[in-house]
Amino acid sequence: QLQLQESGPGLVKPSETLSLTCTVSGGSISSSSYYWGWIRQPPGKGLEWIGSIYYSGSTYYNPSLKSRVTISVDTSKNQFSLKLSSVTAADTAVYYCARHPRAGWNPSYYMDVWGKGTTVTVSS
Amino acid sequence: EIVLTQSPATLSLSPGERATLSCRASQSVSSYLAWYQQKPGQAPRLLIYDASNRATGIPARFSGSGSGTDFTLTISSLEPEDFAVYYCQQRSNWPGYTFGQGTKLEIK
């Protein structure tokens, strides 16, 4: 059974870079059938897609975050990672990693498997 | 950007009743609409994709309908475990996926 697990620091200082990793188990991140994405949820609020990546390294980012986001993949470790630079308190959220089925050459819009999420607080 | 508006914000019903949740898009999204269920402290769970297709393992009491701008998630007979927050999601002007603000389904 496919499982995704987020990991990384729970506390990040303002203006620094948030770094998270998602480890995929029970399946291969190199599958040609899926993309892998990051979504976040501020406390008490709704969901925001951050970006997604294919095992080849092709990336797609939310235009509103694109200037600060980098998503990368390490197929040897079955992991993909998120870096979000110049964070502020507005970046405080639960961060989820998830899987998208592929639709043609792009990721499908929906996410069918999710990690449990990790809370990141931006504070000095 | 396409905006999704969910209604009502909160729905109070009893187990055994029928629940009807609405999601309206600011412009047509064809059938590219998904529904998720989220319980407190848990990740969202995919229920419906492409407006009416149930995801793997989702009970038949959950159904989705609609196309264009108006979509509905129906739960035919509420079970105690169905009380949660429900989100719709669509494929916005690519690249981009946006979510509705959520409907909280609570026990009456």
Quick structural summary:
With 124 residues, chain A is mostly beta strands. Helices cover 0% and strands 52% of the residues of chain A. In chain A, strand 9 and strand 10 (106-107) form a beta hairpin.
Q: What does it look like?
A:
- The complex is a heterodimer of chains A (124) and B (108).
- Chain A is mostly beta strands.
- Chain A has strands at residues 3-7, 11-12, 18-25, 34-41, 48-53, 59-61, 69-74, 79-84, 93-103, 106-107, 113-114, 118-122.
- In chain A, a hairpin with a 6-residue loop joins β4 (34-41) and β5 (48-53).
- The radius of gyration of chain A is 14 Å and the shape is globular.
- Chain A starts with a strand and ends with a strand.
- Chain B contains no helices and 11 strands.
- Chain B is globular and about 40 Å long.
- Classes of the chains: A mainly beta (124), B mainly beta (108).
- At the A-B interface, loops of A face β5, β9 and β10 of B.
What descriptive keywords fit this protein?
heterodimer; A: 124 residues; mainly beta; 12 strands; globular; B: 108 residues; four-stranded antiparallel sheet; 11 strands; 51% strand
Counting DSSP H or I runs of 4 or more residues, the number of helices of chain A is 0
- Secondary-structure element order of chain B, N to C: EEEEEEEEEEE
Describe the global form of chain B. Answer: globular
- Distance between the amino and carboxyl termini of chain B: 36 Å
Distance between the termini of chain A: 39 Å
Please give the number of β-strands of chain B.
Answer: 11
Percent of residues in helices of chain B comes to: under 10%
Strand content of chain A: over 45%
Topology of this structure?
The complex is a heterodimer of chains A (124) and B (108).
Chain A: E1 3-7, E2 11-12, E3 18-25, E4 34-41, E5 48-53, E6 59-61, E7 69-74, E8 79-84, E9 93-103, E10 106-107, E11 113-114, E12 118-122
Parallel strand pairs in A: 2-12
Antiparallel strand pairs in A: 1-3, 3-8, 4-5, 4-9, 5-6, 7-8, 9-10, 9-11, 9-12
Chain B: E1 4-7, E2 10-13, E3 19-25, E4 33-38, E5 45-49, E6 53-54, E7 62-67, E8 70-75, E9 85-91, E10 97-99, E11 103-107
Parallel strand pairs in B: 2-11
Antiparallel strand pairs in B: 1-3, 3-8, 4-5, 4-9, 5-6, 7-8, 9-10, 9-11
